[in-house]
Amino acid sequence: MKLITLKVDNQPVQVEAGTTILEAAKKVGVEIPTLCYMEKINAIGACRICVVEIKGTKVLQPACVTPVAPDMEVYTSTTAVRKARNLTLELILSNHPFECLTCIRNQNCELQSLAETFGIREVRFPGENPPYKADYSSPSVVREPEKCILCRRCAAVCDKVQTVNAIALQERGFNTTVAPAHHRPLAESVCINCGQCTLVCPTAALHENDEIERVWAALNDPKKHVIVQTAPATRVSLGEEFGMTSGSIVTGQMVSALKMLGFDKVFDTDFTADLTIIEEGNELLHRVKTGGTLPMVTSCSPGWIKFIEHFYPDLLPNLSTCKSPQQMFGALAKTYYAEKMGLDPADIFVVSYMPCTAKKYEARRPEMQSSGYPDIDVVLTTREVGRMLRQAGINFTALPARDYDDPLGISTGAGVIFGATGGVMEAALRTAYELVTGQELSSLDFNDVRGLQGVKEAAVEVGSLTVKVAVAHGLGNARSLMEAVKSGSADYHFIEIMCCPGGCIGGGGQPIPTNLEIRADRIKAIYMADELMVMRKSHLNPAVQQLYKEFLGEPLGHKSHELLHTHYQARDKFLIPAT
Question: Average of pLDDT values for 427-452?
């Protein structure tokens, strides 16, 4: 390992060869501002906000892409540097709408923050916005091209992390924009609705499709019985919307806050996560015993489902037929729960609180109304719920903890860990082992499928069968696994795939910022929440057992197939130009 010594603002620092000036500056406590840069994903030096002065050079250099050199002397805040950065920022602002007070990213916008940091008090250059209108076609993500600063972070994530390429630079010069091919609406593209672009967009050029007003209208309708389900990952992220440290476990406070908003019942999606394990586990065992299609692949992640429909339609038979926990919950809410409560399902309004923008799309799929009604009426992301609570003036951090309502609020630690990559697999293994062997596990922790490694593998002895499993998160990693399945080189029995890096804790609807460190904090909290649970195995959930006894009958039975299972469809892989 070759080390290089240089100076940054007269402070000596020693770093490895190949290190950029940006990284070297951090080692001496200097934070150089950036807009387009994302570590290991988008280092292109396009925005020029990070320019620095290097002794002996004639022009300023972008710190994010300039490697260090021996005895280099770097200056990050000279008059020339500050003037250049201010000028660049002014030029960006001249082509940007001044709508900060009404913008969905107000007070959480990198462009706005830089303008304040740089002390911008006027923009000297008259400009005009690009000639592109907002795109509201997608149920998940809104595009507002006039707010785009062409940093290309969204396109980089869509290409390099998710390998979808739904959006990219279009046109040239002043007409340049980031959009689907041929400027088609986002809903008509191969976009898989994951929302990872919204997490990295520095402005509001891409953001979630806000549905808060629909929920307020339902809550204020006396004819509606309004219930809400909360996803596993939300309990370790909502606190960030109110200044709490990443990974804070706020389950009880979250329930309190939702009750204060006026929901008639607050339930836990973990209940149907446990139910998913029972149905999916039995489906896997049935395939193994009868020579069914293997490897079986999880179907919990709607972004992943749309990805396989577009890019690997020939592998659709490998998918589990189980609906996601969100959709299972909605189907049961308008059948089982309606019967128990003596309610007309037409009067039940189901709100789903998810960390995910793709869940908005999933809720609108025509397959998702097996009860005769849409399983889910509205999906809210963590960012939307944060806004609702602020609108209601609720002091979240001061709330006492409250419990979920029965019966759809009873869950296990196995349901909780659905929120992290590897969690579905671990929950399934806990149950499969004990159902097959009739013996208790000596340890419930399957560490081989945990962590942020892109693809994880494990072999688990379940009775006389060695079950080979794999876990992937992020669709680039999923693509690698699917190629192995297509080639016949993957001899797995079961594969878990989560669309978003880190799993649901890194979903496209989570608080901004969501980066690698924050994902790690949330995952740690998910497993801590699991360990704090009294019950940690899905098949021991008494409410799920009662559900089968009173209503469903048996796993994979007629009623289960009717309400809890579904099918998927092949989709076009490429956009066809409009004629």
Answer: 95
| List of domains in the chain | 3-77 (3.10.20.740), 93-208 (3.30.70.20), 220-564 (3.40.50.1780)
Q: How many residues does the chain have?
A: 579
- Cα-to-chain-centroid distance, residue 494: 22
Sequence-distant (6+) residues with CB within 8 A of 363 are 139, 326, 327, 330, 352, 374, 375, 376, 377, 378, 379
Q: Are 254 and 311 in contact (CB under 8 A)?
A: no
Q: Is 334 a catalytic residue?
A: no
Amino acid, res. 112: Q
Neighbour count for residue 388 (Cβ, 10 Å) = 19
Could you confirm whether 362 is annotated as catalytic? yes
Does the pTM exceed 0.90? yes
Answer whether residue 492 shows pLDDT above 70.
Answer: yes
| Whether the Cβ atoms of residue 325 and residue 272 lie closer than 8 Å to each other | yes
The 3-state DSSP class for residue 305 equals helix
Please count the other Cβ atoms lying within 10 Å of the Cβ belonging to residue 87.
13
- Coil, strand, or helix at residue 236? helix
Of 53, 280, 309, 384, catalytic = 280
Percent share of the chain, pLDDT over 90: 96
Q: Within 10 Å of residue 398's Cβ, how many Cβ atoms?
A: 9
| Identified catalytic residue from 504, 537, 538, 560 | 504
Residue 539 token pair: 């098949």
